[in-house]
Amino acid sequence: MTTRHSIQLILVIYFNNVVTQHGGEAINCGKGFYLGTNRTCVDDNECGENEAESSALCGTNTECHNTIGSFYCTCKKGYASESGETNFTTMIHCRDINECETDPCGSNATCTNKFGEFECTCNEGFITTNGERSFTDKTVTQCRDIDECETDPCGSNATCTNSVGDFECTCNEGFVSTTGERTFTDKTITQCQDIDECETDLCGSNATCTNMIGSFSCTCSEGFVSIPGGGPFGNKNVKQLCIADMCKDAVGTCGPNADCSMTMEQAICSCRTGFTSTTGESTFTDKAKTQCKDKDECQDTVAACGHNASCNNTMGGFNCTCDEGFASSIEGSNRAINCQDLMLLRPRSSSLQDIDVFTNQYFSSLSKIEDRHSEMFRKLVSNFLEQMEKHTLALANTLGHEEMKNLSTNGFDVNMQAIRNSTIPKGGRTKLSTSRNSMDISWNNVAGNEKFDVAAAALISYKELDSLMKDNQLDSGEKLELISEVVTAAVTNKVKENPYDPVILTFENKKHSNKKVKCVYWDSSVAAWSIQGCSLRDSNVTVTVCSCTHLSSFAVLMALHDIGEIHSFNLYVITTVGIILSLVCLFISILTFILCRSIKSVRTTIHTHLCVSLFLAEFLFLVGISRTENKTSCAIIAGLLHYLFLACFSWMLLEGIQLYLMVVKVFNANSMRLRYMCLFGYGFPLLVVTISAAVYSEGYGTDRYCWLSLKSGFLWAFIAPVCVIILVNAGFFILTVWRLVNKFSSLNPDMSELKKVRAFTFTAIAQLCLLGCTWIFGMLHFQENTIVMAYVFTVINSLQGAFIFILHCLFNKQVRDEYSKAFIRVCQMKKASKYSEFSTFSTQGLKSTNETGM
Length: 854
What we know:
Elements lengths: L8 E6 L2 E6 L2 E4 L4 E3 L5 E3 L7 H8 L3 E6 L2 E6 L3 E3 L12 E3 L12 E6 L2 E6 L3 E3 L5 E2 L7 E3 L12 E6 L2 E6 L3 E3 L5 E2 L7 E3 L12 E6 L2 E6 L3 E4 L13 E4 L5 H5 L3 E5 L4 E5 L3 E3 L5 E2 L7 E3 L6 H5 L3 E6 L2 E6 L3 E2 L12 E2 L10 H16 L7 H22 L7 E5 L3 E9 L8 E5 L3 E6 H5 L6 E9 L2 H4 L17 E6 L11 E6 L12 E3 L4 E3 L3 E6 L3 E6 L19 H28 L6 H23 L6 H33 L10 H22 L20 H30 L7 H18 L5 H4 L7 H12 L1 H11 L2 H40 L2
Antiparallel strand pairs: 1-2, 2-3, 4-5, 6-7, 8-9, 10-11, 11-13, 12-14, 15-16, 16-18, 17-19, 20-21, 22-23, 24-25, 25-27, 26-28, 29-30, 31-32, 33-34, 34-37, 35-36, 36-39, 37-38, 39-43, 40-41, 42-43
Helix pairs in contact: 4-5, 8-9, 8-15, 8-16, 9-10, 10-11, 10-12, 12-13, 13-16
């Protein structure tokens, strides 16, 4: 038998049924299969083609599932077999499952079982959360309570009260249900109707009852009054009676200036406010024995009006007025008032309304002061002008870029404008005008700095201030007659000085004068009119044109009083130029003391710390002394200046001690240790500043400068330590000079006396400046006639850094030698650099020639 004609027998197993094939064709199919037309075995669908055939095979309420070569039966959803089987192949009848036995609906719902299924419906008073009528899955849908009260189920004059699954209605007070029931739920059957309370005697005798919807009212008959209460009544829970009204004629019953009230039994009399009974009783019943007389409240002025006020008694009352120099927001009758010192009076805020209230209070108080030449009056005017400038600028700072606003009140007119973000408008100037006056000013004068967030200018014209100040005079004593309104020209730039670009003010003359016209400004430092810094440009019958500039100075550090404007520009220029020069010299000196090793010693260490302290102090003074815009930052600047200048004096004292040890105690010259020097040089100033700030923190920063206040003598927190250090240094200076005289006398005998005197004088003056003794010139500037001391102080002390550089650097041979060496090294480096470049170029050219053979 060959492979080609061999008979192939293949055994195939399908679900435990064997099919025999011969030559690729089926001979007999197993159970669950039948032989198809192409002689292949095809799966037999035992379940049939319809539900009837399926039920005939499996039973009622079943489902038949055909499989390959077989089938199985299951009960329909909602049905179960009696045996509990889920899959079966014999005919079984499935019975209905009662799902409601397992509470599938949750609370507030009713379950209804059906053949093969169930459904849940919400109980009465509840509704499904999804709005459907019924549901089958309680995890998705629940029954929530219906608030029947939202649909007004009770009708009018009733109150609805909702409860879980239900509600109830109750009639409002004064109403009763038509069925007599206390509560009800069906308004179509039961309503609330009004109770006629007047059917019962609720008002009593001598009264008339008036029924109203839901209530009633009782009114006493003519000549009677209700007790208690005194008027119509209608509260049935409070018993009231109508009795004869004896207070109808109050004067006849109680007499004049008395109030009458009724009780159950009689009329009670009491004196009105401002009166007291002749017997001292608070109440009385017999006017023949007791009367009401005027009470004199002004016997105790403080109790009646408060402090700093005067009391004026009137019939039945009193009037209070504040004393001169004091003001109150309220002045009037029968009440104590708070009279505040005008010097402490401030607007509540920078709003126009609060500034206007402040102005009215101030003008009213100033008008009551009889002596307009008094120092108190002039200081009050200064305070008023300063506060108006400060708060008006705060209001102007709220404006947008180039926004201009005109405001007017009964007391003043103001025109203001602001610019922002360091942007100067085209033209560089602005003109502000009120009804009678105008101001032409440069924006550079307004801003002050190249960079700014906001810069504002304001022109304030006061409508009544000129009449209040008409009796004042110039600071020189010359009588003054004002012919225009008083104005304030306010700018955000605290350093208002610019003599090269003055402010132009134009005034409308309120009256014409044949006398010589002058332009004046109010100098707050002396509280008087002054012509300094102001000049007349033009004047005619209608207008006057003025040009004004004002400046400040470095001399404010030691001045025991405010420096006037008369010498401000000169002192300002001296201060600025001197400090800038000193800062440069101090910087060079610090580098010299640090880098020059040949001069390293205790002296150069002290020099270094002194220069650093003085450099920081003068730099902070230059950039921060006028930064008064923010009170907190100004106080911090003042505290730092206090600390740094005291540190300068501390190191100056160490300079004096070291000089004494070098010249007098030669053998102890190097006994000072750095840690102890730093402890004193920086610790002593810190101690003084800490104590000063703890005792009087308000003393740091003023309205004009970021320095110590002159009030309460707080400036002595700086001057007192300075005086002590100056006195000690003066002692060291005298001893040092005395020893130097002996040393000069023992020098080369061939040196002429003139040279010795010249050398001695120069050394003494230089050392005097170094040790800070020249600060005494600042303390000698007590009055205006000592202004020369301010000049001497400003010149010498602003150049102190330059003096240190000259004395310890330029006049020191070792330092000069180091400077020469450094200069020579720099020159040699430049020459070497040039030579190196030339050599490199030549070598490269030679190499190129050798390589190319040219």
